[in-house]
Amino acid sequence: MAHEPRVPLRPAVAALPAYVPGARVAPGAAAFKLSSNENPYPPLASVVAAIADAAADVNRYPDMYATELTEALAADLGVGADEVVVGNGSVAVLAHVLQTVVGPGDEVVYPWRSFEAYPIAVAVAGGTSVQVPLRTGADAGRLDLPAMAAAITERTRVVMVCTPNNPTGPVVHRDELETFLAAVPSDVLVVLDEAYLEFVRDPEAPDGLAVHAQHPNVVLLRTFSKAYGLAGLRVGYAVARPRLAAGIRAVSTPFGVSHVAQRAALASLAARDELLQRVEHLVADRTRLVEGLRDQGWALPESQANFVWFDLGERTMQRAEEARAAGAIVRPFAGEGLRVSVGEPEATDLFLRVSATWL
Ligand code: PMP
């Protein structure tokens, strides 16, 4: 047996929960991968061409600060280039945001169940997680913003607001977010994680940029992984006020976003209309999936993302296995429920056939 060094791991690292990736599906396998909220469409030809062109330059380090992409995003969003920080997926940007403001013993408040990277990123930053349960009953799956505000203490440095919430799907509403922000001290950072923003159709959803403009302590987190279909290239970004943005940049992994990824993200911005047309198809299929499930008698939270959530309790693992056997790979949260991504139309058809057998 190989000898391990006698070096102790940090207790926080030894205690980290696992991040469970969606199951890997071999290319060409006869199964739909509905476990990671990915975009089922392959990259556009223009994006593939940009990737191929960029490949010729990979003997050089990339532009460390992704200048062109940062400027394109800033122009697009109507903010300064000093307010945009691009990183290696929004999950890395989140880790860097936390490392910028959280120290040992500082608290980070977030909803739970929510994105499974949160407890890991908080612990790695040296902070303490304060998890606030989601609402139950008729509002099941929604964030409980009053309870989150009430959980803030003198030690709280950051509050995470995941909207739409992964894995349950609902958004926060403009009025409840304003009430919440009015209750949050101005020296506490509020991170709006908008990974699924482009799938939101609820007219009561807040406009993150307007909220950021009005509240200096609000940071937005966005990604090219979902609507823009670049999950495999790892590009996300934060919108934050300049001093904070400079701090996030300072703690970021040097050269963290590859040249290939930067060029692909720029090509995706250039092809936005076409990509957002695909999002329309996914939103239409979300509606078809949700209505199909409701017709079958399922009670589901109101999903504004590219996935739906089933509260299945103890039957979760069994149902996930049944879906897999039928050709749909979904994401189980043991003892809680299943998250099913909106994929190809055929995947929706298949999943509706499977869920009908569960009633
Ligand atoms: N935030 C949320 C809520 C997510 O669900 C995800 C992806 N699962 C991310 C952030 C991270 O996305 P990425 O790192 O690919 O940008």
Kindly describe this structure:
The protein is an alpha/beta fold and 359 residues long. The protein contains 13 helices and eleven strands. It has helices at residues 11-14, 45-55, 67-77, 90-101, 117-124, 145-150, 174-183, 208-214, 242-251, 259-270, 272-296, 316-326, 345-356, and strands spanning 32-34, 84-87, 107-112, 128-133, 156-162, 189-193, 218-223, 236-239, 307-311, 328-333, 337-341. A seven-stranded mixed β-sheet has the order 2-8-7-6-5-3-4, with helices on both faces. It has a four-stranded mixed β-sheet with strand order 1-10-11-9. β5 (156-162), α7 and β6 form a beta-alpha-beta unit. α3 runs parallel beside α10 (259-270), α4 (90-101) packs parallel to α5 and α4 (90-101) crosses α9. The N and C termini lie far apart (50 Å). The structure holds 4'-deoxy-4'-aminopyridoxal-5'-phosphate.
Record field, number of beta strands:
11
Gyration radius, in Å: 20 Å
Strand order of the largest sheet: 2-8-7-6-5-3-4
Task: Encode the helix/strand succession as letters.
Answer: HEHHEHEHEHEHEHEEHHHEHEEH
Shape: globular
Task: Compute the average pLDDT.
Answer: 96
Q: What fold name goes in the CATH topology slot of the largest domain? A: Aspartate Aminotransferase, domain 2
Number of helices: 13
Largest sheet properties: 7 strands, mixed
Low-confidence stretches: none
Distance between the termini: 50 Å
Bound molecules: 4'-deoxy-4'-aminopyridoxal-5'-phosphate
- Helical amount among residues, as a percent range? 25-40%
The CATH architecture designation of the largest domain is 3-Layer(aba) Sandwich
Q: Structural class, please? A: alpha/beta
% residues in beta strands: 15-25%
CATH level-four homologous superfamily name of the largest domain: Type I PLP-dependent aspartate aminotransferase-like (Major domain)
- Highest-level CATH class of the largest domain: Alpha Beta
Keywords: Aminotransferase, Pyridoxal phosphate, Transferase
InterPro entries: Aminotrans_II_pyridoxalP_BS, Aminotransferase_I/II_large, ArAT, HisP_aminotrans, HistidinolP_aminotransfase, PyrdxlP-dep_Trfase, PyrdxlP-dep_Trfase_major, PyrdxlP-dep_Trfase_small
EC number: 2.6.1.57
Family: Belongs to the class-II pyridoxal-phosphate-dependent aminotransferase family.
